[in-house]
Write a structure and sequence with these properties.
alpha+beta, three-stranded antiparallel sheet, 4 helices, about 35% helix, elongated
Length: about 110
């Protein structure tokens, strides 16, 4: 998977999610940094999602860590490939860092 594909995947996951579970952590974390205009899925994204939007996080900026669930697939065994069974998919928790738009610059 190329970097551009990873960036687009990160952005599409961020925009498609309907979970509100991280909102408290996002609002609290950025409020502690003095940032007030906080709109998750509008101006708060991961590093890769910002790159997909044509922005880069400024050097030295610290974001807010949140827990998200990433879709995963079990590896198929030789038996599974022969019988054409569908791979087992599941979601695994991952800690990611999100950044506010005020911590980014447009890529030139």
């Amino acid at each position: 998977m190329t970097n551009a594909e990873k960036q687009q995947e990160a952005l599409s996951r961020a925009l498609a999610s309907h979970s509100l579970s991280n909102y408290a952590a996002i609002f609290t974390g950025f409020a502690d940094k003095g940032i007030t205009d906080i709109r998750p899925r509008e101006n708060v994204f991961t590093f890769q999602a910002w790159k997909a939007k044509g922005r880069q996080v400024r050097a030295g900026q610290h974001g807010v860590k949140i827990c998200t669930y990433v879709p995963m697939t079990n590896r198929q065994t030789a038996e599974d490939r022969v019988s054409d069974t569908k791979p087992n998919t599941f979601r695994r928790p991952r800690m990611v860092t999100v950044f506010h738009v005020s911590q980014t610059d447009a890529i030139t």
